[in-house]
C-alpha cells in the first residue's frame, strides 16, 4: 500500500524503542503463523495491534514476551534480546495475554496476593498495599472477596489487568483487554490506558475493537496473514488516503455534473457529494459549485477512518483501487 505515513515494513526509528522485532517468523508443524514481522514499539507510545483472527497478533506478542521461541528472527524487549533476556526485561513488563489464569477456588484478592508474592520488586510489607491499590484501580473493590470461579468474563479481565499493575512498569502488554466488559468497564480500561500513557508507560494493546483503538492509541500496527501490512502514528495513517471534500447539498446531481465538467472526480455520499481534491483545492471546488448555482450547506474535509483503513489493508476490494474509503471527520468551512 502506498500513501504518506503508511509503512509496510518497519519505520525508520526516530525515538527510542521499547520493543522491536526483525524478520520474525514462527512455524507450527508446517503452518506459518507469523512471517517476516518487523515491528517497532516506540517508548511511551500506546500501540494498537490490529488484525483479523489468525493474523498472528497473539503469536507475535508471545514471542515478544519470550513465551514462545521464534523459528527465525530477532526480538528485543526493553533493550534485552528475547527470550534469553527474559529475566532482565520481564520484571518491568506487565502482561495480560490470552485471558487471565487464576485459581478458581481463591478470591480475587487471594489470587492477587499470591501473584504479588512472586514479584521480585515487592517486599512482604508492601504486598497488601500493592494488591489493594491494583484492585481499586481496576474497579474490583466490591468483588475482591468473591471466589474467582464466580467471576464474569469482564471481572476476570479486570483481575488480569490488576495483576499487570501490581508494581510500576515500563511497559504494559494487553491482549484484548476489553473482552467481556460492558460500556462502563470499557471506559475504565480506556481511562487506565490514558493514565499509563500520561505516566510515560509504553502500552501495547491487541484488540479487534477499532473504535477503542482509535480513541486510545497513538500508534497502530496492522497484521494480516502473519505479516505487518502497515504501521506508524495513528494520525498519519488516518491521513494517508486521497484528500477529499464532503459537500452537503440538496443539488447532488447538479453538483456532480458541474464538477465532472472540470474533470474532477465526484461521487454521491449520504449527505451530498464526495469530491476528490487531487486536482483542485477546496476553495476552487466551492467556487465551481457556486458558479453552477449549487446550494452548499456545509463543506468539510474527509479523513480515513480506522475501520475503513483496516478493511482496506486486510481485504482486497477491486471496487476501490485508488485510495482509501473515508468517513466524515474534521471541518473546513
TrEMBL record:
Pfam families the UniProt entry points to: ABC_tran (PF00005)
PROSITE patterns attached to this UniProt entry: ABC_TRANSPORTER_1, ABC_TRANSPORTER_2
Keyword Ribonucleoprotein found: no
Keywords assigned: ATP-binding, Nucleotide-binding, Transport
GO terms, molecular function: ATP binding; ATP hydrolysis activity
Family recorded in the similarity comment: Belongs to the ABC transporter superfamily.
Protein name per UniProt: ABC-2 type transport system ATP-binding protein
Organism field: Amycolatopsis xylanica
Amino acid at each position: 500500500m502506498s500513501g504518506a505515513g503508511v509503512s509496510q515494513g518497519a519505520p525508520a526509528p526516530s525515538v527510542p524503542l521499547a520493543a522491536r522485532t526483525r524478520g520474525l517468523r514462527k512455524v507450527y508443524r508446517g503452518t506459518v503463523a507469523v512471517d517476516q514481522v518487523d515491528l517497532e514499539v516506540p517508548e511511551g507510545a500506546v500501540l494498537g495491534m490490529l488484525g483479523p483472527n489468525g493474523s498472528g497478533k497473539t503469536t507475535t506478542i508471545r514471542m515478544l514476551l519470550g513465551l514462545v521461541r521464534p523459528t527465525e528472527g530477532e526480538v528485543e524487549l526493553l533493550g534485552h534480546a528475547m527470550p534469553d533476556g527474559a529475566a532482565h526485561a520481564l520484571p518491568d513488563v506487565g502482561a495480560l495475554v490470552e485471558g487471565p489464569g487464576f485459581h478458581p477456588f481463591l478470591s480475587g484478592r487471594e489470587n492477587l496476593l499470591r501473584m504479588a508474592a512472586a514479584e521480585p520488586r515487592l517486599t512482604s510489607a508492601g504486598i497488601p498495599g500493592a494488591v489493594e491499590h491494583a484492585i481499586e484501580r481496576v474497579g474490583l473493590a466490591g468483588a475482591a472477596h468473591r471466589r474467582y470461579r464466580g467471576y464474569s468474563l469482564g471481572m476476570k479481565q479486570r483481575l488480569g489487568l490488576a495483576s499487570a499493575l501490581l508494581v510500576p512498569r515500563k511497559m504494559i502488554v494487553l491482549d484484548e483487554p476489553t473482552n467481556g466488559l460492558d460500556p462502563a468497564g470499557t471506559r475504565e480500561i480506556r481511562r487506565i490506558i490514558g493514565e499509563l500513557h500520561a505516566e510515560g508507560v509504553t502500552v501495547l494493546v491487541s484488540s479487534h475493537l477499532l473504535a477503542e483503538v482509535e480513541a486510545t492509541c497513538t500508534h497502530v500496527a496492522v497484521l494480516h496473514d502473519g505479516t505487518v501490512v502497515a504501521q506508524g502514528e495513528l494520525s498519519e495513517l488516518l491521513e494517508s488516503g486521497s484528500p477529499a471534500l464532503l459537500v452537503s447539498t440538496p443539488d447532488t446531481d447538479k453538483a456532480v455534473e458541474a464538477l465532472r465538467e472540470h474533470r474532477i472526480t465526484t461521487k454521491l455520499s449520504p449527505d451530498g457529494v464526495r469530491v476528490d481534491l487531487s486536482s483542485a483545492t477546496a476553495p476552487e471546488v466551492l467556487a465551481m459549485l457556486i458558479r453552477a448555482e449549487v446550494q452548499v450547506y456545509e463543506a468539510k474535509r474527509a479523513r480515513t477512518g480506522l475501520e475503513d483503513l483496516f478493511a482496506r489493508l486486510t481485504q482486497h476490494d477491486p471496487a476501490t483501487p485508488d485510495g482509501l474509503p473515508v468517513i466524515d471527520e474534521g471541518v473546513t468551512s
